[in-house]
Amino acid sequence: MNPILLYIDPGTGSMLFTILIGAVSAGYFVFQKLKLKLKFVLSGGKAQAADTEKIPYVIFSDSKRYWNVFKPVCDEFEKRGIDVEYWTMSEDDPALKTEYSHVKASFIGEGNKAFSKLNIMNAGVVLATTPGLDVLQWKRSKNVNWYVHILHQPGDTTFYRMFGLDHYDAVLISGEYEEKQLRDIEALRNINRRETFMTGITYLDTMKKRYDDSVKGEAPSDHASDGTKTVLLAPTWGDTAILKRFGEKIIKALIKTGYNIIIRPHPQSFTSEKEMMDSLQAKFPESEKLHWNRDNDNFDVLKSADIMITDFSGVMFDYALIFDRPFIYADIEFDKSAYDAAWLEEDMWTLRILPKIGIPLKEEDFDNIKEVIDRTVNDETLAAGRDKARAETWSNPGEAAKLTVDYLVKKHDELAGSGDDTVSEDTPQPAMG
After folding, report:
1. Which CATH architecture has domain 219-393?
2. CATH for the stretch 49-201+397-418
3. Is the model's pLDDT at 132 over the cut of 80?
4. CB within 8 A of 286, min separation 6: which ones?
């Protein structure tokens, strides 16, 4: 047989998998419906014979990277003695080794295996950071009452690939501008109104407490008191990111400054841009003045840096808002055509706030990058910008985990009290925020 006839292109393969999952899901739901009817009949037709296998709360994480977002929420559930299941697609997720009495962590596999389980899950309220619900492989389960999105960093709700949040029932937000973006998208697309609830940002609360604890008893110190600064290069990944655009050129320029240089690439770069990373690490090996950082936890490296250089990585907000230090961002034109931001005429909040909390770096400035670094470190106007950013994007500091669980419990009880086992996707939902 001609092997070409057996070839299925990736797009067709994905479509066939979606069709298969749809067929399996439909069969599953038919089976579940028959099972419920049988339970109802065997119990003498009493309403309390309803399905008892529904999981009240599920937290879904598609990567161990988001444990810093979910751990405070799990801790709050544990503190209240409320049972919750944590489903992860990372076999080495720290949650799997964290000892809880009320949080049950499970590895549900990767890729299609995980989505197959998610698409037929039976749960009351599901919390996730993952965009693209009911857009790609992750489909809404008919046995889930309510899907809630939690942000994994400060910034725009339009900074997702198109339609990323369209099919969630609720979005937990941290700034008023985020709700406005959601409402504007809803009006333009004529989609259902999603609930919003102002919680804040869980991992920022945890990081701030950790930072405060780490400096207790320490005398105020000037990181660069001896004139030798530590510069952290912390880019995101992709075609518009620093390393892809300026890799060798910017690293050479930084080495010439004589400062201590730490390069911390986005973890995805080592997977999606492996060839580039291998090449850069070979050309610029570890030395007394140059270090490649791949720690799972970025706290220590952020704390050690006098200044950071980045692009559109969310780490810039961690650095500015928690450690209260200035940063330089590559002046790269952001292509928003693939993102929800493309639907709106107003600039993204991130692009509006950037010039107030950081200094742009153009390619022609690479030759005098040392002067740009020194000028930025000494720019006192950036402190006011950081205060403005905190006020606009970090609501309820220190309270995010509590407010998140408050919302989840209230919504679960509300749905259970209504007597509805499911929530129709066609029913517009009121906003709470």
Report:
1. 3-Layer(aba) Sandwich (3.40)
2. 3.40.50.11720
3. yes
4. 292
